[in-house]
Design goal:
It contains four helices and six strands, in the order ββαβαβαββα. By secondary structure, the protein is α+β, with helices and mostly antiparallel strands. The chain has a domain of 104 residues: D-Maltodextrin-Binding Protein, domain 2 (3-Layer(aba) Sandwich), CATH 3.40.190. Strands 1, 4, 5 and 6 form a four-stranded antiparallel sheet that branches. It has a two-stranded parallel sheet with strand order 2-3. The longest helix has 13 residues. It is globular and about 50 Å long. The relative contact order is 0.29.
């Protein structure tokens, strides 16, 4: 997955590729499966996020689902991921997140792999261009150490 920006003074450091998983209400039958396919997501309204002009992530995820043959219907739009996950937990739909979001997250949502999605989300660290900063560099190095292979 990629992104566009009009901010020329930013420096991007790629941290890792994050597989996409479905966030499902724990009470939904799909949540009991070890894995689902993208078309299974048609059973619930889709919660799209972020709800901002030119939200690249939301458009890209919907395109990835469509390419996998899923015709999801957007039932809700959330400004940010935590609101989207709250709507999922309330049983109002499903959404897609990176697998890293699932680690140590909510217990009222089940994060399920999507067997027919190969696309991953790139996680980037972003900072202003300029001289290197030893604390920032140490922080990024520590983040990279934490990424599972």
């Amino acid at each position: 997955m990629g992104a566009f920006t009009r901010e020329p003074d930013l420096h991007y450091t790629e941290l890792f590729d994050d597989p996409l998983v479905a966030a499902l209400p724990v009470q939904h039958p799909l949540a009991a499966r070890a894995a689902i396919v993208a078309a299974d997501l048609e059973a619930l309204p889709y919660v799209s996020y972020p709800k901002v002009a030119n939200a690249h992530f939301s458009r890209q995820v919907l395109n990835i689902l469509a390419q996998a043959g899923a015709r999801v219907q957007v039932g809700h739009e959330a400004k940010e991921i935590h609101t989207a996950l709250g709507l999922v937990a309330a049983g109002l739909g499903t959404t897609i997140v990176g697998r890293s979001v699932a680690a140590n997250n909510r217990t009222d949502i089940r994060f399920v792999p999507i067997a027919d999605l190969r696309e991953k989300s790139k996680v980037l660290a972003v900072r202003k261009n300029g001289p290197a900063h030893s604390l920032v560099d140490a922080f990024l190095a520590r983040l990279r150490e934490q990424v599972p292979d």
